[in-house]
## 1
Amino acid sequence: NNLRRNHFVVYDLKKDVIVRRVPTWIHPNNLKLSPGKRYIYISTRGPDNPKGYLLPSPQNGRVQIFDSYNDYRCVESFEVGNQPIGIALTSDHQILAICNFIDDTVEIFTNDSLVE
């Protein structure tokens, strides 16, 4: 993912080439591929505070979920805490954890809708 340019890239390892760039919300910070490699979970921090990124953002961050089987379309997006940076997904694809840098919190979400 590219924090500065607000996108992530799909890279073909066999051909050693970028296949495409997929736009995200502001400042994608971390990503996690689902166990079946269908969904890409991305934590996006949101805009920086005008006085510096170590201060609270004027907007909370978001998690965006993209479907690699459906042209990398964003299938879900929801607000989380201030500057989410860490992201973890259980091996059964049922629990998502987000670590919010500025809030100093961890949020836990259950997955009831996305099936691989």
## 2
Amino acid sequence: MRAKQYLNQIRTLDARIRGLQHHCDELRANITASGSAEGERVKSSREQDPVAARIIRCVDLEFKIDHEIDRLIEMKDTIIHQINGLDNGTYIELLSLRYVFLKKWEEIADEMGYVERQIYRIHGEALLAFERIMPDDIKCQ
């Protein structure tokens, strides 16, 4: 696995979590809308309550989101530790801003006091430096 691929795992997992949260919000809105519209109907014991089924799905989804957030925190901790293993402060700052804090290129350039073109150049150098210190088991994936 290349350095950029490895570091982008945070962005991918973060996007997955945001998608799950969006889905959960939609489910909650649907439960609220359905719950008030159904009123009180008599149901046989064999029929499953659709609102109850949605609530169960929502709770399951919230557990999954919590698990994914825990994974994200763990992944960020690991990657921060690895990035901090570099011996160049500029590389550490750039890689942290881009891959841990998920900043856009323009934001990174402003924050670091460079023009975007310089940021791209430094980024390439930082990735090569990071690749040299990446654990072998990660490179082989």
